[in-house]
């Protein structure tokens, strides 16, 4: 978690510096359009601060009150960030609508555009770095913070173009009109972040991860693994928890059963790309399994194998043995 904290701390310090620069640009220009970027920079700082604290909590070891660890706090961080972005977007829209009917003088647009352009470039580089790191570590908090910065870069680029357009056309109402469009874009970005955080808090299935795990199990399948079903996955920050039922030959002793379970755990943790804790319930095979069982030299086989069942996400996630499907 040390690298996680360093990345978020870098984002926090950078956000503070850029926030000061953006508000300087606003006081210089008196432009609502510039204010949209300055207001969002406050969100950047607050969100990065909470993200830093959430990563600290997520790094704490599991305890009696939190037997699955503290990883889900990262989803709260993303929710807070989305909520703050949404509030900023709504405030920007309301202020811009007010300014259409009560216009104010704007000035020094070129210098303001230069300041905003510089801050947008810095956010773009930092955001790209954080999204990449958020995927490789992995950390939903760092990735969300990075995507927020990339969104800020897009709005800054649009803001610079808008300021130049206002400067050359002298159409002052464009300042408020463009601000409304940016506010709508910011609010939509907030919705996507909130949607992602709620999905995590509600244990919504991450079908990409489940599909990768099922594909891996299918490719590395052993003869002894007759059937896997009722597979469910939950994410707790950087950790993945999987429950499933594994059907094994009913003549295996407890040591052999334990060996096969550990083999499944080892395979997923080695090759799935995410730290995984598995809770595997083992089922003994039944005569109905024989027609798709690959076990060679089986001493209790009641019929020859006649069917090859390919493990797919749909089959493996059902709470049924394959012969019941």
UniProtKB/TrEMBL annotation:
GO cellular component terms, A-Z: plasma membrane
Residues passing through the membrane, by range: 7-29, 41-61, 73-97, 109-129, 149-168, 174-194
GO biological process terms, semicolon-separated: intracellular zinc ion homeostasis
Subcellular location(s) of the protein: Membrane
InterPro entries linked: Cation_efflux, Cation_efflux_CTD, Cation_efflux_CTD_sf, Cation_efflux_TM, Cation_efflux_TMD_sf, CDF_Transporter
Main location: membrane
Membrane topology: Multi-pass membrane protein
Keyword terms: Membrane, Transmembrane, Transmembrane helix, Transport
Ranges where the Cation efflux protein cytoplasmic domain occurs: 226-285
GO molecular function annotation: cadmium ion transmembrane transporter activity; ferrous iron transmembrane transporter activity; zinc efflux antiporter activity
Entry-linked Gene3D superfamilies: Cation efflux protein transmembrane domain (1.20.1510.10), Cation efflux protein, cytoplasmic domain (3.30.70.1350)
Pfam families: Cation_efflux, ZT_dimer
Residue ranges occupied by any Cation efflux protein transmembrane domain in the UniProt entry: 9-202
NCBIfam families per record: CDF (TIGR01297)
Family membership: Belongs to the cation diffusion facilitator (CDF) transporter (TC 2.A.4) family.
Protein name: Cation transporter
């Amino acid at each position: 978690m040390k690298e996680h904290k360093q990345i978020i701390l870098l984002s926090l310090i950078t956000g503070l510096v850029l926030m000061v620069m953006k508000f300087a640009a606003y006081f210089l220009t008196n432009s609502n359009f510039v204010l949209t970027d300055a207001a969002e920079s406050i969100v950047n700082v607050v969100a990065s601060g909470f993200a830093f604290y959430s990563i600290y909590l997520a790094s704490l070891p599991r305890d009696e009150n939190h037997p699955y660890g503290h990883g889900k706090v990262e989803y709260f961080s993303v929710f807070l960030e989305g909520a703050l972005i949404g509030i900023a977007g709504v405030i920007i829209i309301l202020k811009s609508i007010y300014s259409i009917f009560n216009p104010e003088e704007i000035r020094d647009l070129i210098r303001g555009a230069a300041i905003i352009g510089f801050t947008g470039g810095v956010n773009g580089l930092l955001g790209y770095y954080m999204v990449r790191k958020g995927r490789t570590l992995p950390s939903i908090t760092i990735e969300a913070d990075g995507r927020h910065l990339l969104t800020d870069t897009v709005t800054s680029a649009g803001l610079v173009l808008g300021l130049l357009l206002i400067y050359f056309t002298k159409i002052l109402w464009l300042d408020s009109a463009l601000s409304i469009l940016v506010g709508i874009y910011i609010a939509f970005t907030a919705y996507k972040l909130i949607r992602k955080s709620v999905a995590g808090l509600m244990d919504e299935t991450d079908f990409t991860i489940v599909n990768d795990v099922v594909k891996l199990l299918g490719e590395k399948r052993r003869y002894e693994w007759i059937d896997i079903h009722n597979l469910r996955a939950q994410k707790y920050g950087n950790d993945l928890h999987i429950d499933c039922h594994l059907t094994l030959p009913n003549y295996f002793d407890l040591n052999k059963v334990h060996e096969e379970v550990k083999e499944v755990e080892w395979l997923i943790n080695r090759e799935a790309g995410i730290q995984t804790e598995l809770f595997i319930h083992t089922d003994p095979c039944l005569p109905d399994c024989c027609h798709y069982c690959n076990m060679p030299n089986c001493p209790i086989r009641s019929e020859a194998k006649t069917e090859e069942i390919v493990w797919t996400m749909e089959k493996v996630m059902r709470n049924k043995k394959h012969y019941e499907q």
